[in-house]
Amino acid sequence: MGCAGGTPLLHPAHVLPQGDLRAVAGLSGQAIASGMNADMRNAQASPAIVNPDGTTTTPTPEYTKGAMVATAVAPGIAPFVGARVGVGGGFEGGVTYLGRGGRLDMRKAFSNRRLALSIGAGFDAVFLGRATNPLHDLDMDALQAFGFDVPVIVGWRSTASLYQVWAGVRGGYDHVSVAQRSTEPLKVPQQTALTLSADHAYVGGLIGLAIGLRHIHVALELDASYVFLSGAFGGVSAKTSGLVLTPGSAISWDF
Asked: Where are any strands of DSSP class E within 63-142?
């Protein structure tokens, strides 16, 4: 809980009027639908990289794949807390806390009372690892990542915004790194810490729905993306890819 990698949008295509604010709170999820499930299982079955005498063993390519999935995709559940503000001229900005990191974004909407097209750009960073390590000998406390995404969505809303629906496409890139190999202190001075460096690219689609009255709405969204991972752990390179599902749900309050 609190450390998964899901980053849904959870906002409709229409932007807020200038000066209006929106507070959002909910949950996001991240689930591996295909391909990378086997990478995680194979990595969990791999021999330990740290030997009893404190020396290190070269990781297998299977372990490297699992390490990239655990850090970049990070399946699980995390909180979603954010705020958005209308800045005028059809622009809207937002900030989101996602359990292990955050996202800043700005977008422009072209709209009338019912229909809207929104084009945006978001920048994200990871500054917290997982509470528990999904793989032995992988120090999630040393996890860092940064990247960007570009969502394009279209949407419709009913009179008084009782119902709002949106759908679109989204692509992005993140660079992920783990600077240390283990949470245990180094017992052998000459021991070399193994590092992870990976590139995480993805492209996919999303669909969302919000229902509410006046200032309060409940939003549901499902993102589906195809993920490409490539990188190295301890000098061992690997690549993997697969389908990832990112559901999210939140309550928003406009004021």
From this structure: 76-88, 91-97, 101-111, 115-126
